[in-house]
Specification:
heterodimer, A: 304 residues, mainly alpha, 11 helices, 69% helix, 0% strand, B: 214 residues, globular
Chain lengths: 304, 214
């Protein structure tokens, strides 16, 4: 079933990504004993922001307006090479996993440029932190993907995730378990979730990602929120594709299992966020380097 | 049983990195306990000739001592001395983890070099043993707190134990138990020494011992 259902992966992501955020927020609310916002609240936020007009500071240039648009574009492009639920991606070619990392980097680059363009010292601080942590997280992602390449022998994401089955897990259990742990940490780091950064806080001194987008408003902010949901979906799909090794060939079974896996992941993230406090900023690099180490260990375990 | 050795190998590596990156002494002691239990299982898996009394006794003694008694002694010591966490080791935590990766590479290379000389030793365990020894040595020289140095010493002993189990075909039980007894006594002596150092100087920071020079 290589290209028969090519629309499945991007369609799920485009439609369901904000729901993932809603599910995380709902889990956090339930654990805390509150009723919480409706599951569809992230969609409403995006629509609300789209209806508003944008306000641009007088000191900002075209770079500031470019940021959110290009960021969203990179993530939509990344959806095209992302396999999901046993279904291959729309486009796949050898080495597209490096393109995935490159697209993330490009999106981050334009967001940082837009933040620096405002000339705000807070945004500059956020940009500096974002780049610092990204520099540590990117090698972790690439080494984790390299381990998957070595285990499965595929050179593109679709090839890799097309052949991850129970048998693969039985063959390389320690390496795959280590990579799965790395991917969970990356999901938290790249989306600035709780042990790294608190997405709900609005205290500029401690924020990482949120502080970079303080000056965006209206449709631009809607793009940023939607792009954040897509990024959560993409990294989550990399993890779920690995730990839900169901490749029966039937779209309903494989796709359904993957969607259930994503929902489970959202609940787990919600639980983690309810149970943990944010790390001190100086501890965060240690956390990320630890994740990178896990995948490095997985790589060495495979070598010997 | 290559799958079991595979898992022990991977988890043992993770415990080493956790020990390198953790600042809390209590958490370090628990990781050390996990490592002791895991490596104590090795003789059960690598034995050549049936599960004899000798192998059972060796594994049981190791797991009981390194997995339970030593951690208990160390936890008690930590509770009686007021030094809840490692403040700024000589080598930072991130740098320690990076050293760990380099050491892992080196121990793979060293194990490859040693492999021809020890044909019947499982390669993964050879590598684990060398790696655990190197990390133990590193902990001894890079940490300030005397308790962390005892942890390093016990890792060293863990590594040497695994190396002995897989390389020497037949060691008399008496020798092995003697080594265990030595480690047991050493931990107690170190514990008492640390307790007295702490009571005398109000700290376990070994760097402050430099101030004693006359």
């Amino acid at each position: 079933m290589p290209q028969a259902h090519w629309f499945f992966s991007p369609l799920c992501a485009l439609l369901l990504a904000p729901l993932l955020l809603g599910l995380i927020n709902r889990t956090k609310a339930v654990v805390a004993g509150r009723r919480g916002p409706p599951l569809l609240q992230p969609y409403r936020d995006v629509v609300k922001c789209l209806r508003r007009g944008a306000v641009y500071g007088e000191v900002t240039s075209w770079l500031f307006r470019l940021g959110p648009v290009v960021n969203l574009a990179t993530l939509v492009a990344a959806l095209l090479i992302l396999p999901f639920g046993g279904v291959g991606a729309v486009v796949s070619f050898p080495g597209d996993l490096i393109v995935l990392a490159g697209l993330f980097a490009l999106g981050r680059f334009v967001t940082v440029l837009a933040a620096l363009d405002t000339g705000s010292s807070f945004e500059g601080m956020g940009a500096s932190r974002e780049v610092h942590f990204a520099a540590l997280a990117e090698p972790a992602l690439l080494v984790a993907l390299a381990v998957l390449v070595r285990v499965t022998g595929g050179l593109s994401l679709s090839e890799i995730y097309g052949v991850v089955t129970i048998a693969t897990w039985a063959r390389a259990l320690p390496a795959l378990a280590l990579v799965a742990m790395t991917l969970v940490v990356l999901e938290l780091v790249e989306n600035t979730r709780i042990p790294v950064d608190d997405p709900t806080t609005h205290l500029e001194l401690t924020m990482i990602h949120e502080v970079m987008v303080l000056d965006h408003s209206g449709p631009d902010f809607a793009y940023i929120q939607y792009a954040a949901a897509l990024k959560l979906w993409i990294l989550g799909a990399l993890f779920v594709g690995l730990v839900v090794p169901l490749r029966s060939g039937s779209l309903w079974l494989d796709g359904g299992a993957a969607l259930l896996g994503m929902a489970g992941l959202a609940v787990v993230i919600g639980m983690v966020e309810s149970a943990m406090a944010r790390y001190r900023l100086t501890r965060v690099p240690q956390f990320i380097v630890g994740a990178a180490t896990l995948s490095a260990v997985a790589f060495i375990v495979l070598l010997v | 049983m290559p799958a079991a050795l595979d898992s022990i190998h991977a988890i043992a590596l993770v415990t080493c990195f956790a020990l390198l990156g953790t600042s809390r002494i209590g958490a370090c002691i628990r990781w050390l306990s996990l490592q002791g239990i895991l490596l104590g299982l090795v003789p059960l898996i690598t034995h050549d000739d049936g599960l004899g009394l000798r192998v059972m006794l060796l594994a049981g003694g190791n797991i009981a001592l390194k997995g339970m008694i030593f951690p208990w002694v160390l936890l008690r010591l930590r509770a009686r001395t007021s030094y809840p966490r490692e403040v700024e080791p000589f080598v930072g935590f991130v740098a320690s983890i990076l050293f760990g990766i380099v050491a892992l590479g080196l121990s793979v290379w060293l194990a490859l070099e040693l492999k021809p000389a020890l044909p019947h030793a499982p390669f993964l365990m050879l590598e684990t043993a060398i790696f655990v020894v190197s990390i133990g040595l590193f902990m001894i020289i890079s940490r300030r707190s005397a308790l962390m140095q005892v942890i390093g010493y016990l890792m060293l002993e863990n590594g040497i134990f695994v190396f002995g189990v897989i390389t020497v075909v037949e060691t008399p039980l008496l020798v092995e138990l003697g080594v265990l007894l030595d480690a047991f006594v050493a931990v107690f002596v170190m514990g008492i020494a640390i307790f007295h150092i702490n009571r005398e100087f109000g700290s376990m920071d070994v760097d402050q011992l430099n101030a004693l020079r006359g």
